[in-house]
Amino acid sequence: MSTEARPDRASVRLSPRTVALYSIGSLGTGGYATLPGLVLTYFLTDNLGVAALAAGLIVTSAKVWDVVIDPLIGAASDRQFARTGSRRGFMITGAATLPLFFALTFAVPPSWGPVAGAVCVLLAFLATATAFSLFQVPYVALPAELTGSYDERTRLLGWRVVVLTAAILLFGAGGPELRKAGPDQVVGYLLMGIAAGLVIGLGMYIASRTADAAATDPSPDAASAPLGFREQYASGFRALRRSRPFRALLGTFLLQALATGTMLAGAQYVATWVLRSEDAVTLVFLALVGPALLATPGWTVVARRLGKERAFAIASVLFTVAAATITVAVWAPGAWIYASVAVAGVAYAGLQSLPMAMLPDVISHDERTSGPGQAGTFTGIWTAGETVGFALGATAVSLTLAATGYVSTVAGVSSSQPEAAITGIVLSFSVLPAVLMLASLATLRGYRLRRADIDV
């Protein structure tokens, strides 16, 4: 067993190997979060001919399934950890099954028709979401068990976000390029699904080895989640009720996931109809991820000096301003949009690393008052909240498109869009995320944990 998981872990500096293995997991989480959010709605509306509103409902339905199962997986992960001393079993299962289901999501041909195609995509994406949750929920629980140090958690999650931003670049730019590798869009989407699924699964499998560093002696009699489904959900609600820092952080992260989810879902539409090039989505992602990749170490430094919560607030304000400036594209679209996206990218690095580094602090704080063994319960609720945010982001874009008269098409058929639809695309990429990010600052005010509350 690794000494990094012992009770005195607060003073332990994580080994480079542990940091590297854990960070590689973001190759999987970044790929799963990015590629479906970027192209799945567009795949449904512009390849299968599914109406924009229906496409949004399909993506949302799959995400609602995540919300249902994540708390159950979190509680089950806690029981597995108490029984075996490790959370690796669920992580391996998710890594092994996701590649197949991910590929099937993009394997539906237009010839099946919009209705059959929509149903098949929904079922495949539900299975993909289940596989991902089996990995993601215990994965997010690990930092609280790997180290108790306030700054070490920032370091660990900072490197994770470096890999995450690289994964966003890889999948956000490489996914659409793979889509063009086939002789037509049907084959292209299939190639993209197969290749991306394999890379995501590999990253998840490598990261599962980090669970060994957090492993401890089995404690069958230790506090763990109840067995009944009803009690498992009740356990999650009790965690929300008793932990004010968790409520504040979760509310903030949910709103911000909704904000970034709207930008992610709208990026392909901005590229196609505002920048007038379907391939411009690659440049949008380069503008977002390039600065984020460089800025993550800087946010780690800011957090060490000012505290995570202050650094988080600064990143939120910066993102709000950057998103709001893109509103000008309603009247004057052009390449200048990339500059605003780049500023948002600098902020995005902080929005990813800082709350994820604050979550283990919340879990540790709760352990002191309520006892250990519930990290999975917290991360199950957290992952469900994140899922809601990203799902509603895609739904918000779909509703905006439907309300402004967006015209859906099938692969190989060209069309034009009304001016109202173009305006809706811009607003869903600018004003909507800016307002949501501004609202998240209000919830962040309720987060009261500081360094002195953790390093005791």
Outline the structure in words.
The protein contains 16 helices and no strands. The chain has one domain: Growth Hormone, Chain: A, CATH 1.20.1250. α10 (280-306) packs across α12 (337-370) and α11 (308-325) packs antiparallel against α15 (431-444). The protein is mainly α. The chain has helices spanning 16-46, 52-84, 88-105, 114-146, 150-179, 185-208, 210-213, 229-242, 244-274, 280-306, 308-325, 337-370, 375-403, 419-429, 431-444, 451-454. It is 78% helix and 0% strand.
SSE diagram, text form:
Blueprint: H1 16-46, H2 52-84, H3 88-105, H4 114-146, H5 150-179, H6 185-208, H7 210-213, H8 229-242, H9 244-274, H10 280-306, H11 308-325, H12 337-370, H13 375-403, H14 419-429, H15 431-444, H16 451-454
Helix content estimate: over 70%
CATH topology: Growth Hormone, Chain: A
Number of helices: 16
Helix- and strand-based class?
Answer: mainly alpha
Which range does the strand content fall in?
under 5%
Please name the CATH architecture. Answer: Up-down Bundle
CATH superfamily: MFS general substrate transporter like domains
Give the tally of structural domains: 1
Mean pLDDT, all residues: 82
* Cα distance spanning the termini: 25 Å
- Give the CATH level 1 class: Mainly Alpha
Radius of gyration: 21 Å
The 3D shape can be described as globular
Major sheet, described briefly? none
Extended strand count: 0
SSE pattern = HHHHHHHHHHHHHHHH
Q: Which residues form runs of ≥5 with pLDDT under 50?
A: 1-8, 221-226
